[in-house]
Amino acid sequence: MKRFLEIIPGFLSWLILITIVLLFIFRPIVTAVIMIIFLMYWVCRLCYMSVLLALAHHRVITKRNIPWFAMCQKVSSKPAVGDIVHIVLYTIYKEPQEVLEESLKSIKESHYPKDKMILVLAGEERESGSFGRLTSLKEKFDQDFKEILITIHPKNVIGEIPAKGANATFAAKKTYEYLMLNKIPIENVIISCFDADTCVDKNYFSCLTYNFLKNPKRHQMSFQPFPVYSNNIYRAPSFARVMEMGSTFWQLIESMRYEKFITFSSHSMSFKTLVEVDYWPVDLISDDSLIFWKCFLKYNGDYTTYPLEVPVFMDIAVGKNFFDTIKVQYKQKRRWAWGVENFAFVGEGFLRNNKIALYEKIKRLAQLLDNHVSWATWAIIITFITPLTLFWGNLILKDSLVLFNLSYINSIILNTSGFILVLCVSISHVFIPPRPPGVSRFIYVQFVLQWLLIPFISAVLGSLPSLDAQTRLMLGKYLYFNATPKARRNVKNK
Amino acid sequence: MKEETYFILRKFAFWTMSLVFIFCTPLIVFYSIGYKFDSASSKFLKTGLLSIKTFPKGVNVLMNAHKTGETTPCVLRGLLPKKYNIVLEKEGFYPYEMPVYVRPSFVSEIDVVLVPREKNIEKLKFNFNVYRFFINKQFFGEKIVFFADRGIYILDTDFKNVLKVSSMDLGSILVNSLEGLKQYGNQLIFWNKKNVWMVKVLESNSDILPDIVPLYETEEEIKGVFLGMKDRYLIVHAGSYIFALDVQNPLVTFPVFTPQSPEAKIFYDERTETLFVRDSVPASEGHSLYRIELVPIIAEKKEHEKIS
After folding, report:
1. Do residues A152 and A130 touch, judged by C-beta distance below 8 A?
2. Do residues A169 and A146 touch, judged by C-beta distance below 8 A?
3. What residues of chain A lie within 8 A of the CB of B28, using their CB?
């Protein structure tokens, strides 16, 4: 059954792409009509997503800087704000020391009592000298927090794959032992699992604590900040900036669809819940989203993700040079797209669970399938197949009215996309950190013009990695976790 | 704004876009196929489209003697399938009238060039008696070479620049007997049935002009002249001979091919330096094609000259 479910997304994506091409060769008029319907659907969907983006943007700018800690103190709940302990877990594998220091510094500077914060630096035995490196980091920040724990995840553990989830799980289990030893009740503990380059907003922990306290179903809820990839924005190539800003926008859009919002990358949740669901998966790559589905299945569908109003800042994946950056970006996006493995995981889980309503199961699976199949196909169809269709149609059926109108509708769509690009440019401006010294002010012109790359980038670094991931999963050629290289050449961006 | 308000706004946007998709898509698809609701007959009718392009642009379009209000380039949509009389009008141009048949679900195209009513007529500002002119194609456009009573001239097609090549008056009779003219670099070569001449073209007007050099003279008929071998040799087909003639030293000639038949035809491909000859086959009544690469022939000749 698992294999069958793994095949479905890739099969469907390829079926859509091949059918459109074949249909156009043999039934060009029918294909043109289908393309018109498809383009109309995407215009409507893009407009809807733009509204969501504008709403999310409004929500963020109006709520990001409110006095969250003062609000925490006003919440009358049990546990109270003073009872809450934060575990901040950093999974570390070969990230440069300056990246880690900058991340820890951001936590140190956050507006939340540090005596309520325990840092866990989760290193890997695979990385030689990891313990020494983390120890020097601990010595530097030891006085600033309640405790800094160092864990080293052993290599070659049977039943695990060398991935972030396995490391995070090992560290969380060690943390559990520490909490038990120190008699800290785990229902009062919030754990934040961060990538090594995650720098928090100064209000992050206050906002997180407030939302944790005020919500009665706090143990049936994950808390998701929106990731802003801006730590090295002034040093990254234009296409990488657009790609990552697109990821931020996607998270903002998703954050407005509460009922289907799931965890992604750096996120927070109740430690009690984490223990109850037996931590993150250790044999799968997309641990960040799978933890949501584990909880969802555990609580029979009564589990949600709350979109936090504050951001976390992360690095844009860059390589040693332009072409290496393309490679790094492609591999990172393919790893993200490997989240398609969730479909089989959730499908199997739904088969075993009789308490979740059938409608809910179908809706959730359909949403997952739609997300991944759309990701793999729509940009390829719009960027490559539609222009080819128009070109080919002009050669073989120059006087066909449908093909003539397809070209007309396509031009309307491009104009609509233009409006959406203007919206993107104006919203992205909010997330760009101040220009560091030594960077020309002409970079702002680049920040505007870079959005013109969107159609090409969304196909090459959006759909293709996704199609690649789905094809591998379909063929049973499983992907191994590929840590994105982190390099902070300009650490004073924020 | 409260979370509930965001939720309501989101739902509003979702349903608005869903309704737009549900109601607009069928209309757009029907419209794209060519369907149009005809209020007179209360029926959906299949229509066609007329695309009109003109040179120049901005031409008024009249359909069945009624103004459409459109100017070219334009697209007239939703036309019922039948014959239309289209008139294209623009001030300063002759109106263009044509019938067009619009077919259902098809695009009919009109692409016309309008002819101006008033023409610019410009006379050569010099009072020459022009005997004859040739159009000389060059890499960057074309030039006019004309023979007049005051000599040979090269003229830009816009009449702006005139370059005097020679002061010699060849006379009307001789000029009108010319069979062809070609320019290779700075050499202007022209010929009639008995003679081939060459004159060097200077880059600017000068008081001292080079003479017209007779390159070749024959009692037989010159049937074709080509320039080959890096513009150094004239390939001449005269009478029953095909030979190469050194342009810089007209005394140097050598045979290239001797056709069997006086009706032989030749073509010289200047790009590949290859000569093609249609000639009769010995001991046969038929004809065949011959392909002769000139490079080895001339190289052999040069080598032979060096040795001797």
Report:
1. yes
2. no
3. 36, 40, 409
CA distance A29 to A373: 25
Alpha-carbon gap, residue A428 to A246, rounded angstroms: 9
CA distance linking residue A298 with residue A364, whole number of Å: 15
Sheet containing A117-124: order of strands:
A147-153, A117-124, A85-91, A189-195, A267-270, A221-229, A304-314, A199-200
Q: Measured between alpha carbons, how far is A477 from B128 in angstroms, rounded to an integer?
A: 86
Nearest chain B alpha carbon to A403: B32
Strand spans (E) along B229-273: 233-238, 241-246, 253-257, 265-269
β-strands A147-153, A189-195 pairing = unpaired
What is the per-residue DSSP string for A255-286? HT-GGG----SSEEEEHHHHHHTTSS-SS-S-
User: Can you tell me the mean pLDDT for A155-173?
Assistant: 88
Closest approach of chain B CAs to the CA of A240, in angstroms?
30
Chain A residue nearest residue B5, CA to CA: A55
Asked if A409 reaches chain B (Cβ–Cβ under 8 Å), the answer is yes
pLDDT band at B137 (very low <50, low <70, confident <90, very high): confident
ipTM: 0.83
Length of chain A, in residues: 494
A38-83 tens-digit pLDDT:
888 988 988 899 999 999 999 988 988 889 999 988 888 888 888 8
Indicate the residue of B6, B25, B29 with minimum beta-carbon distance to A256. Answer: B6
- The arithmetic mean of pLDDT across residues A372-379, rounded, is 90
- Separation of alpha carbons B33 and A402, rounded Å: 5
Q: Residue B25: its chain A contacts at CB < 8 A?
A: 36-37, 40-41
- pLDDT per residue as tens digits for the range A88-112: 999 998 888 888 998 999 999 998 9
* Token pair for A199: 């720098």
Find the closest chain A residue to B47 by CA distance.
A401
In chain A, what are the domains? 1-494 (3.90.550.10)
Give the confidence band of A494 by pLDDT, cuts at 50, 70, 90.
very low
Using a CB–CB cutoff of 8 Å, tell me whether A45 touches chain B.
yes
% of chain A exceeding 70 in pLDDT? 97
Long-range contacts of B213-218 (CB under 8 A, 24+ apart): B213/B250, B214/B250, B215/B189, B215/B245, B215/B247, B215/B250, B216/B245, B216/B250, B218/B194
- Contact by Cβ (8 Å): B50, B108: yes
Q: Which residues of A110-243 form beta strands (DSSP E)?
A: 117-124, 147-153, 189-195, 199-200, 221-229
Q: How far is CA A247 from CA A128, A237, A257, A314, B73, in A?
A: 33, 16, 16, 11, 42
How many Cβ atoms from other residues are within 10 Å of residue A251's Cβ?
20
